[in-house]
Amino acid sequence: MTIPNLNIVPFVSVENMMKLVLEIGVDRFLTDLAAYIEEDFRRWDLFDKTPRVASHSHDGVIELMPTSDGQLYGFKYVNGHPKNMREGRQTVTAFGVLADVGSGYPMLLTEMTILTALRTAATSAVAAKYLAPKGADTMAIVGNGAQSEFQATAFKALLGIDRLRLYDIDGSASRKCAANLKGQGFDITICKTAQEAVEGAHIITTVTADKQYAMILTDNMVGTGVHINAVGGDCPGKTELHRDILLRSHIVVEYPPQTRVEGEIQQLAADHPVTELWQVMTGKAPGRDDQRQITLFDSVGFAIEDFSALRYVRDQLRTIPRYDELDLLADPDEPRDLFGMLLRQATKQTA
Amino acid sequence: MTIPNLNIVPFVSVENMMKLVLEIGVDRFLTDLAAYIEEDFRRWDLFDKTPRVASHSHDGVIELMPTSDGQLYGFKYVNGHPKNMREGRQTVTAFGVLADVGSGYPMLLTEMTILTALRTAATSAVAAKYLAPKGADTMAIVGNGAQSEFQATAFKALLGIDRLRLYDIDGSASRKCAANLKGQGFDITICKTAQEAVEGAHIITTVTADKQYAMILTDNMVGTGVHINAVGGDCPGKTELHRDILLRSHIVVEYPPQTRVEGEIQQLAADHPVTELWQVMTGKAPGRDDQRQITLFDSVGFAIEDFSALRYVRDQLRTIPRYDELDLLADPDEPRDLFGMLLRQATKQTA
Fold this sequence. Notes:
The structure is a homodimer of 351-residue chains.
Chain A: E1 8-12, H1 14-24, H2 26-42, E2 53-56, E3 61-68, E4 72-80, E5 94-100, E6 106-111, H3 113-131, E7 138-142, H4 148-159, E8 163-167, H5 171-181, E9 187-190, H6 194-198, E10 203-206, E11 213-217, E12 227-230, E13 239-241, H7 243-248, E14 249-253, H8 256-262, E15 275-276, H9 277-281, E16 294-298, H10 303-317, E17 324-327, H11 338-350
Parallel strand pairs in A: 1-6, 7-8, 7-10, 8-9, 10-12, 11-13, 12-16, 14-15, 14-16
Antiparallel strand pairs in A: 1-17, 2-3, 3-4, 4-5, 5-6
């Protein structure tokens, strides 16, 4: 019998996360993670849900996103600082923790910058499974930054989307995206305008990064029957779609109290009807019920998706042990004797 | 010029925290930390304040405690599980993060089980500086668990309290406390009842651990002129003092919206007058104004104290580099190229 080291918490560094993703394979990782997300959304009622706890400042926001299913507790720390890009930093960085509700002890600490990119793409693809028109094979991606390749890969893995139409105000971003996706079975067209990108697309993904009200899509650009996967409008004051598009769309969201403040629907009245993604998944509400309908997944990212990602990584580490052991928790021999542990350390040091 | 490694976050393990505390010295650590706490309480208005974000379950609670002064952001993860003690685990474990508000990047990750014990004691001693009767030299400590020696040491370092009267329902806890404090200049009496412990004490510290309404002190046990340092009543449904004691006391709290829910004053009407510690420190409200007055510091622990502790540790690490470097943040060469970083890792692995 091994005595557990109660002080140790497994830690997945950025390098180990990359190794884990590559050993599993990006496509399988996204597909399996999507299944975990769907599983958790299907048991929506079990979760302790709260809008993220945000600390806003001039340059950005720092957020904590906690949730629990009663057995496990997870939270993510994540920032959003658009100006970071110009200083060679990530707009969004994140890390997260999974803990045991029974003891309150953390069970896993992991980088979540890469993991968030994966879970965001997996969530978009899961939503599109229910909302995209039948036979969709072409996706426009407007905004070709850090999230774009993950979106493309998830939509290919889960929905078989293999024709991409890329647009970014910075052409080098589109070329970077196309280069990264080369040789992975995509037919890629780089477009000169957003208007050109959406032509013939069955799915339109908007994923730009500026923290401001923007008009990435105007009403005339969106024809009947498309599915819009709106990923970039994800904090107060940041939207990507013209309001008129929203008024024509069947709108699906993750968690209304959060999306009303952060999503595209911040442009609409507080009581504008929206459907929750978990309701669509469980058949409590319709997804797409007409091939001519415009569907809109107004994605802002919710704590349960991070919880699913933490849970998935925890399960994978059992067979692919890509982690370090972190001496994070004080573990005196006698639990009431924290001070004595300090005294014994002093003795050790002078010995 | 050195190029900063943007992926690296300094990490203070439990072992390094012990080394840091011992190299600085417990007394000086507590005194210096108390000064940081006082400095932050004196600029109270600058802080983004919110009650902790709690996830309650049958066996305990997991909490996130964020705050920011506009330049730095800090949060602590902390659990409270009274049953843990019986399973050889800590009732309370914690870790925390300090981050740069400008970029949202974490600057420090540290164990906070030991650090919380130190900051709780330092906060109690700071409050007592303003509230304890003049000439106080004797303190009763009711509850001799993990926090007791830290309280004793802080009160000696900051107020010169050197006579202790210990009581715990488990006598072995009192003996452990006395043994740990041996040779540090205390005159210690182990008492058979709480009644006996409070006799002749100028300061009464209550710091028991059970998660329930308890009656550690009854009204008749508390004479005029004492200062009560009530540390153990710190979550909904957990109190230590008889309500009548509160009605006779000048009550000082950290942050009313949190203390009304978690502290001893959860027994009182929601509008019962209380004084905030920062007001006492800045002279906006009286501390003790009569030697016969009963003062009560109804301590529940507030995020700003953890912020001060994180800030203090960050400053100490500049000269005493007791930390490891954690590969916590993804840092691609081109910030928009997170996916490309993954591809290059794949190339590295097959090379």
